[in-house]
Design a protein that fits this description.
alpha+beta, globular, endopeptidase fold (from Nostoc punctiforme)
Length: about 140
Amino acid sequence: MTPVSLTPYQLAQRFVSIKEAVGHAANPQILAMLQLDDTWPQEDEVPWCSAFVNYVTWLLRLPRSKSLAARSWLNVGTPVTMTTASVGFDVVVLSRGSGGHVGFFSACEQDRVWMLGGNQGDTVCVASFETSRVLGIRRLGGE
């Protein structure tokens, strides 16, 4: 039997529509992602984009940042340019105030980069961002 081989992007697609719980409750799946690398989160109303990327890469045994800080992904994998970025193994790190945002590269069109990520409108989805916010793109493995 041939083993099934998934890219991080393909696995991340399985989580689309997972979202934060309303009110004081917390989505246990998001909490599990957060607590994989840190014990302080007790609710899902905290930044969890990096937790999502870490969780997906952990499931696939790929390099990961082991941090809840989005900018920590700038030290993982190999840098690639926007023109060579591809769907599959590439993550995009964006600026967001003094922090950041991270997700899996989906597409680039004109001045927008599309990312599949967590904590995008409190859910896992594909969303677009201005390319001027891109701090880096990192390839985690694959070809």
